[in-house]
């Protein structure tokens, strides 16, 4: 049974609103597995277009009216590139630095969420998607959830790196029971795209207050524990986590025909 967060001592649900939507893109990490190809993962070109710009363009196509980019590693360099990227993409792109980019990615979510009011699309700078995924995801919100995660049930798909994937175990209604890199059994893989309410940042803060390191998955698990973490099945749609040379080669070969 779904739990109510309205009681004393619990995280209270935020009202769901369909209004102007931002996108939040996490681009703060070191990107060690891609360093042989590029010294800046967010600016790594795929078919001539930087990964970060692909994400910004996809967020705009899904209905975002503004994009907040969380920077960390080599922040000055990345932030200097954002005005030209914004002009090319035709959407405001605003930088927001995380205090310590070496901390888990939930800290980057908190940094970005601090300058966003209401609901937002959350994306990783190294994930790219066919157009239908983000467009559908942007329409998935509702009062019964604090977050909706795009998931892929094709767990053995050759585009997925099982050593780096975040896995998801679901209940019968499509809500998350468990999420993490080491859970077993699992039903689906996390695609790295979320439709978030302010509940996600509150959940990450609650996990940190309990002594957790502050990962995004820890915040997601907090929401799952109270029945507030929903999913969206992407079906046969294409997506890719461009995290290493193998994935880069796949992106170069497939992205031109798969991206909008």
**Mean pLDDT figure:** 92
Q: Which runs of at least 5 residues are low in confidence (pLDDT < 50)?
A: 1-10
Termini, distance in Å?
Answer: 39 Å
Tally of helical segments: 7
How large is the radius of gyration?
A: 17 Å
Biggest beta sheet attributes:
9 strands, mixed
Total strands = 13
The shape is: globular
Structural class of the helix and strand makeup? alpha/beta
Structure description:
There is one protein chain. β2 (45-46) and β3 (49-50) form a beta hairpin. The strands form three sheets. Strands 1, 4, 5, 6, 8, 9, 10, 11 and 12 form a nine-stranded mixed beta sheet that branches. This protein is of the alpha/beta class and 260 residues long. It contains seven helices and 13 strands. Mean pLDDT is 92; it is low at 1-10. It is 30% helix and 23% strand. It has helices spanning 51-61, 75-89, 105-113, 131-137, 199-209, 216-225, 245-258, and strands at residues 22-27, 45-46, 49-50, 66-71, 93-97, 120-124, 127-129, 147-152, 167-170, 176-180, 188-196, 229-233, 239-241. The relative contact order is 0.19. The longest helix is centred in the first third of the chain and has 15 residues, at 75-89.
């Amino acid at each position: 049974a779904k739990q109510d967060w309205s009681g004393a001592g619990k995280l209270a649900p935020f009202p769901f609103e369909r209004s102007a939507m931002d996108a939040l893109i996490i681009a703060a990490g070191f990107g060690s597995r891609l360093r042989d190809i590029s010294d800046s993962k967010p600016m790594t070109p795929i078919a001539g277009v930087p990964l970060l710009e692909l994400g910004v363009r996809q967020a705009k196509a899904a209905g975002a009216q503004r994009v907040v980019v969380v920077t960390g590693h080599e922040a000055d360099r990345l932030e200097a590139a954002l005005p030209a990227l914004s002009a090319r993409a035709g959407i405001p792109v605003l930088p927001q630095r995380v205090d310590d980019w070496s901390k888990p990615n939930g800290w980057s979510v908190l940094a970005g969420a601090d300058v966003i009011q209401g609901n937002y699309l959350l994306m990783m700078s190294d994930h790219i998607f066919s157009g239908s995924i983000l467009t559908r995801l942007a329409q998935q919100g509702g009062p019964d959830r604090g977050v909706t995660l795009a998931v892929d049930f094709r767990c053995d798909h050759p585009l997925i790196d099982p050593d780096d994937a975040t896995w998801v175990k679901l209940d019968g209604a499509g809500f998350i029971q468990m999420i993490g890199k080491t859970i077993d059994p699992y039903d689906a893989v996390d695609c790295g795209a979320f439709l978030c309410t302010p509940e996600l940042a509150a959940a990450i803060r609650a996990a940190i207050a309990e002594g957790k390191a502050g990962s995004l998955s820890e915040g997601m698990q907090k929401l799952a524990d109270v029945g507030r973490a929903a999913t969206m099945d992407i079906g046969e749609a294409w997506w890719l986590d461009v995290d290493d040379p193998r994935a880069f080669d796949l992106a170069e070969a497939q992205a031109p025909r798969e991206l909008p």
